Amino acid sequence: MLSVSDLHVSYGAISALAGISFEIAQGAIVTLIGGNGAGKTTALRTISGLLRARRGRIAFLGEDITALPAHKIVARGLCHVPEGRMIFSNLTVDENLAMGAYLLHDRALIAQNRDYVFGVFPRLKERLKQMAGTLSGGEQQMLAIGRALMGNPRFLMLDEPSLGIAPRLIGTIFEKIVEINRDRGITILLVEQNANLALEISRYAYVLETGRVALQGESAQLRTEPLLKATYLGG
Amino acid sequence: MVYGVLRFINFVHGDVFMVGAYVGYYVGRLVPHHSLWGGLAVLAAAMIVCAALGMLIERLAYRRLRSSPTLNVLITAIGVSLLLENLSQYLCGATPRSFPELFPVATYHVGGVFVSSNQLVVIGVTLLLLFALRYIVLRTKLGTAMRALSLNPQAAALVGIDINFVISFTFALGSALAAAGGILYALNYPSIDPLMGVMPGLKAFVAAILGGIGNIPGAALGGLLLGTVETFVGGSQWSTYKDAIAFAILIIILLFRPAGLLGRFTVEKV
Questions:
Q1: What residue numbers bound the domain in which A45 lies?
Q2: Are A82 and B160 in contact (CB < 8 Å)?
């Protein structure tokens, strides 16, 4: 579904991605793990069009999207829930969801998506008229995912959904991710610091290290990999 | 308007205001004077021309500077402002021209106060535009996108908002309002010249700061307060210092309440 080949990205003179390649099959949950500065967020930002690649190619559903602006990539069904959630804190929860459906014009479809989002995150329905900036961290993450779901994505990229969230809510968020993937058939690319959790729910994993793919394989196998265990899984 | 979305002061605003008045002057020759519909048609024409001018300025001058430091944008704005002022001196001449009486002229006597019909037009059109603007910004999808963009352009792009389009629309809206301002001003001070926009442009800036920048009712309140203060000072023995007092207000507000009267210091959870 998504195919990234030989992607190079740099910030000025500093290279952030030095030629990474990966494939994501339709319907899967795939995770990118790695330490700080490994290039995980850079990879997602380049795929969604917020950053430009210096070299390499990104293909989505067989079509080259490397040079498309961000809003046209979203229009193809590839949606990015960025690190730090980036909800519109100056808008209400309701308006945030409406913005998620910015590209849709079919009212019935928008209403249907809203119902689905409220089904997944009932908490959002209770907070509709509240300013999004006043939500708790976990609720903001629910809103960010809900906003993305409003646009009918086929492919969802989640950047650090566990960041800055009360520990008891992390489990809930991850259950919902699995549920979204299973019930709606949305393919998911998950970037996570919490490698244990990410390997638990994903089918396949890529380990990034300083801008390169250091290791890849079935998540179940990687969990027992001694090198990975020592570095990311806490021994 | 533009500040609210793009976080920079559009110094060209006063000059678009001037262009609006000139468009009114030239289009005003084509319609019958002293008629309500003729006046409104001129108003609409000036707003449309200036909306297009605003989009053109954004496209040519500001778009490339989207990721540059604010100072560069500010300098460019001053450049565009000088360009418009001098271009219209070149094209239309520097001599002041008298603005036609577009609307019917009458004076009403209401409870001991004299009100001219032009003043009623100003109040009516201003209120109408204020409500229209509030409606667009607060109730429409495009307005919501403007607010979303003002907070975080990247997040806006990630939900599929075409940033260039929304910014262009913002400039069109702001410039159309400036044109309306130019016409309303010229109706009451019926002498127009290419530099007429400079002072009102600065005053609008003071009014916006006074009310709380990026806040629509705040800007209206600021304008009203500033106008009232100026009128009273103008009628007193210190009338020479009318403009100085307006800018003194700016300095005082910036020192003691930088968020303005209706502005808030926003506190957000991260």
A1: 2-231
A2: no
CATH number of the domain at A151, please: 3.40.50.300
Strand (E) positions, chain B?
97-98, 107-110, 113-116, 191-192
Q: How many CB atoms lie within 10 A of CB A179?
A: 12
With the C-alpha atoms ordered A230, A171, A116, B153, is the resulting torsion angle positive or negative? negative
**Neighboring chain A residues of B151 at a CB cutoff of 8 Å:** 88-91
Residues of B with CB under 8 A from a CB of A: 141, 144-145, 147-148, 150-152, 154-163, 266, 268-270
**Nearest C-alpha of chain B: how many angstroms from A131?**
10
Domain boundary (B164, B196, B228) is at B196
pLDDT for B102-126, tens place per residue?
998 888 888 888 888 888 999 999 9
Q: A77 at the B interface (CB within 8 A)?
A: no
Q: How far is it, in rounded angstroms, from Cα A210 to Cα A15?
A: 9
Rounded Cα–Cα distance for residues B58 and B61 (Å): 6
* Domain co-membership, B121 together with B253: no
ipTM confidence score? 0.91
Residues B179 and B216 in one domain: no
User: Does the CB of A143 have a partner CB in chain B at under 8 Å?
Assistant: no
pLDDT tens for each residue of B178-204: 999 999 999 988 899 999 999 988 888
Instruction: Calculate mean pLDDT across residues B148-173.
Output: 94
What is the residue range of B176's domain? 2-196
Task: Give the total number of structural domains in chain A.
Answer: 1
Nearest chain A CA: its distance from B146 CA (Å): 11
